[in-house]
């Protein structure tokens, strides 16, 4: 009888490639994430260059002997999805690629054990029980990486500090204490070679505090800040970063779908703890399908409005020409719903933008056609600027976005079991139909780019500096140009290179037919 074998080296290399950034940063951030998930209040890192070792120790819950034994298995985890930011000890497993051995010591109650682990060949990663080296104080877990390269950046304290500040900035910013207090009630202390990383505030020429509250909630569900400098910011500080439970997941302007006139001078950080349940398997991105995807996209829409409002107050928002372009794009966005639904069966790869289930499903209340329903979904749409908000701005207080309470009729339609911490998910009742996941059209100027547009996240960015767009605007045929730009941007996602022409042709055919068909009637 044959036996299935696993090429561990190949598997770990594929797992490594699933993460953005350098392997050393991935290992470090994942080990720290596992410490945070274990309930640690204090995390200590120290290096021993003479022995080429890095040790990360915490005072978390620790592990029992059986848990430590399973910890060496691939794809084994005791974690519950949505309750943490670590990925089943993947940092330790990836450490096998860089280390001659990994020593793990853990202590919980009367249990105090340790193991030594290494990658012996492509198919074997043996481990054995060893006497505890005594790096754990009281309770918790300590991981010691014996690096094969004595010049590895993981042995540099400066690299460790910079990586932690870049990937976990909310843990070291005093303004995030309130929004993270529920998850880290005693705060988090981090030490590198016995030097504590201190908390500090935001240091910038202009700083604006942002808060998003759920309806009838006193504490903000999302909080953060935006900053603006007179000179361009460093590359790693440009754009808005979104973090959950302290760990930055995405950074920049593309994911948000909003761009100021001077994107290189504006940055910021927004912490949304509730989005931990929307993380992908490798915790490096967010899910965009199903109820979790709907939650993420609804939060994203609320953050878009908060950021856009602050940019408008700074005078850094798009000008009147941008508003004109938006008016032209809105009819095309409305037509996209029907076009994408019609094409989803023929081009299944569009499932990232359209999800269809057998018999259809209830239309999720997101996207441009469902702004009112989006408030019911996440209860986080921002209210219009009021006199009280203007007064708080004058007093230097945070800009607060308070969601409106949903109508009583909408509350009756929601099933009680569909509510989760104030976020209302689509109920089981009502008509079942396909759902469109918020594909929108935005504009940017890229004079040297020959492409008409590009797809980023769920946004098609149309190049308004392209000669073809200027010609279309002059002849008042922007609508056709936008449809063509969207088709060309979606083609690489929907079809292989040999079939892209067929997709563009089918897309324009459906788009043209949408003009001939009557609009859907209003819902009764």
TrEMBL record:
Residues 397-408 have a biased composition (Low complexity). It holds the Pfam family HATPase_c_3. Residues 409-420 have a biased composition (Basic and acidic residues). InterPro entries: HATPase_C_sf. Residues 388-429 are annotated as: Disordered. It comes from the Bacteria. This is ATP-binding protein. It comes from Eiseniibacteriota bacterium.
